[in-house]
Amino acid sequence: MFIDTHSHIYAEEFDQDREEVVQRALEANVRNIILPDIDSTTRQAMLSLAEAYPENLFPTLGVHPTSVNDSYETEMQLFEKSLGQHTIYGIGECGIDLYWDKTYYKEQVIVFERQLNIAREMDLPVIIHSRESLAEIFTVLQRQHYNMKGILHCFPGTEEDARRAIDLGFLLGIGGVVTFKRSLMAEVVREIGTDHLVLETDAPYLAPVPHRGKRNESSYIPCIAAKIAEILGSDTKKVEEITTNNAMNLFNLHTSSVDRP
Ligand SMILES: [Zn+2]
Q1: Residue 92 Cα, ligand 1 centroid: separation in angstroms?
Q2: Cis peptide before 55 (omega within 30 of 0)
Q3: For a surface tag, which of 56, 60, 80, 201 has the fewest beta carbons within 10 Å of its beta carbon?
């Protein structure tokens, strides 16, 4: 069994065929899928979808850095209010994004740190989004890294950054980018091995080769596992076992999968 640790199947890109997309994932043996939250505009769609597939889809709650603007306090209140009302498996995705817009950098840091504190209080993993901001992310994590666990999603760093993230207790989320030509992510995987990796699609974005450029979906996870196996001269089954185990432990999914026939 594979786990997709990052999939936005609730996004409007899947409005026409969402059920088929979930079915294709299950048929590809991608049986557990983490649904990272974005903000209040898509939250209800995410929670309703997760409710329809309680054995397979596992939601988190959070506020994405690109959703941070002048009204971030309202957004945070909505997020914090929803915390006590749903079964969730993590906090995020949260983080810092300086690629799209630097206007709200200060506010992004405030919102990120508040979510890290909540994750620690609730003993939940955090899913961290980083774009053009890894140094800033590390600064925040090192300020308050004690008792943290989570994923640096779509890992954007070097081997040295990877070791630093692992030292801070984090796993690296590896997705379609690893299958691209001259990918830095492939270099990192070659040096680090599988012990600290989890698989992710980031659907609908960043589809792996041979689907590159198309809409991404969770059923493509085995392509990513196969590429990692190829890079390491290992076999896909081994990558599947280790990454699934890493994700099961991080999101505490053992109890939810025990009852499954
Ligand atoms: Zn995402």
Answers
A1: 9
A2: no
A3: 80
Name the residue with tokens 């990052």: 6
Give the other-Cβ count within 10 Å of 86's Cβ: 14
Where would I find the H helices in the chain? 18-27, 43-52, 72-83, 105-122, 134-143, 159-167, 184-192, 221-232, 236-251, 254-258
pTM of the full structure: 0.95
Cα(147) to ligand 1 centroid in Å equals: 23
Look at the block and give the residue holding tokens 């003993």: 123
Task: Give CA–CA dist 4/25, Å, rounded.
Answer: 9
- For residue 231 the two structure tokens come to 């890079």
Give the separation between CA 88 and CA 192, rounded to whole angstroms: 30
Cβ atoms of 59 and 47 within 8 Å: the answer is yes
Q: Please give the distance, rounded to the nearest whole angstrom, from the Cα atom of residue 35 to the centre of ligand 1.
A: 8
* 129: enclosing H helix or E strand: strand 126-131
Q: pLDDT by residue (tens digit) across 107-145?
A: 999 999 999 999 999 999 999 999 999 999 999 999 876
